[in-house]
Every structure is written in C-alpha cells, then in structure tokens.
Write a structure and sequence with these properties.
The protein has 230 residues and is an alpha+beta fold. It has six helices and eight strands; from the N terminus they run αββββαβαβαββαα. Helix 2 crosses helix 4. The protein is globular, with a radius of gyration of 18 Å.
C-alpha cells in the first residue's frame, strides 16, 4: 500500500497578502483605531515585505497601493512606502517570530504615550503583550532610525509597545493576531486611563504575572501572540 503524500500548506500569494493588508487597514478605521492617513501596517512576503503607502487615506487604497520592499529598504516597483518603513523593516528583520506589524494612533494608547506612561501589571491581561508590562519607547522623530532603534528595544520579548508622543506598535505571527493584540492593548490602555482617573491601581507582582504567563501556556491554543481571556 502506498502512503499518500503529506499535505503541504500553500503559502499565501502576493495578491492574498495585499488583500489581507488592505482589509486590516479598513478594520483599523472601522474600529476607530486609526483615522485619516494615520497609522500603517506591514506583512512579510517571502524575502520581502509589503507595507501600506504613505499619505493615502484607507478609503482610497487598493491592493495595488501596497508597496513591496526589500530588507535593504528599497521599494520594489512603484509606490511610496509609509514614512515608518524603517521600524517595520527592522522589526521583521530582527524578529523571526513576527510576520505582521500594526501601528496605530489610537485614542487611549496615544494618551498614555503622550504622558510617557508605560502600562504596568494593573490587570493580568497585560500579559497578552508578552510580559508584565507594556513599555513606552522614548520619543524620537517619526520615520527616523532613532525611532526604530528605540521601538526595537521597547519590544524586546514583547508583542506591543507604546511610542512616546506618538502611538502604539503591535506584532503578530499574521495580521489577524497583530490586530487582536492591537485591540487588546487599546482596551487595556482605556481601562488603565479609567482606573487612574479614580485612584491608583493596585499592581500585580512579577511573581503573580509569571504565574499568569505560565498558566496561559496551557490555556487552549493560546500563545503569546493571541489574546487569552476568561
């Protein structure tokens, strides 16, 4: 008896990835996480990556608007990439566990970022970002290499960070998981802002958060890029 050949999972085509990036950009607007031309997204595509274009409102984007880039920072074909292409390129080059990146100027994440406030372990779901806090990277000019360097440091062993006076970055194994982290972090930032308006939240200890992280390792199909909940 001959055994059947192993099933090989087909990799998404360039067209599929462009469509995913467009749909995710549209979702970010519909969820109120981005407005106008703010924010951007990217996804790994073989030896290159696709990124949303510079200065184009989402309602005017198409699959053809997405800009393909190589890891030297050069666009392939036509189109002008987002001004934040450097941190997209550097994160994808540094983090082999990451295939998709979302950057937003969402209301509550940006509010805390403007105060240079990291998000401490006021709630166990902070662990969704990969640790016992969500760091805030120091301020640097948008689109600069300095911003990319500071973002990479803030994202060390994390799936999200705030950018001082700017916004938020979220990472995922794909755009779906990156979007889930984006939504979770924005929700946490809103809850933290609300708690601060009443008083000083009680912060969970490092030991308590480590217990949460260990428990989530065995929680269904959860991994640090998904969003566990009750």
């Amino acid at each position: 008896m001959h055994s059947s050949p192993a099933t090989v999972c087909a990799q998404p085509s360039d067209k599929d990835l462009r469509q995913q990036l467009l749909e995710t950009s549209e979702q970010l607007v519909s969820l109120g996480l981005n407005r106008g031309t703010s924010g951007n997204g990217s996804i790994r595509s073989g030896e290159h990556f696709l990124i949303t274009p510079s200065g184009v409102p989402v309602e005017k984007m198409s699959v053809h608007s997405m800009v393909e880039m190589d890891f030297s920072g050069q666009p392939i074909g036509s189109g002008k990439p987002s001004s934040e292409w450097r941190f997209h390129r550097d994160i994808l080059a540094e983090r082999k566990d990451v295939n998709a990146i979302i950057h937003v100027h969402s209301m509550f994440a940006t509010t805390l970022a403007c105060l240079h406030k990291p998000v401490p372990a006021f709630h166990y779901m902070v662990s969704a970002a990969g640790g016992d806090s969500i760091r805030c990277a120091p301020y640097a000019l948008f689109g600069s290499q300095a911003l990319s360097d500071k973002a990479l440091a803030a994202l060390h062993e994390r799936k999200a960070c705030l950018l001082a006076n700017h916004g938020m970055i979220a990472l995922g194994r794909d755009l779906e998981s990156a979007l889930a982290i984006t939504v979770e972090v924005e929700t946490l930032c809103e809850q933290y802002c609300q708690a601060l308006s009443i008083g000083e939240p009680q912060i969970l200890s490092s030991e308590q958060m480590q217990q949460v992280l260990e428990k989530f390792k065995h929680y269904g199909n959860w991994n640090p890029q998904s969003s566990p909940s009750d």
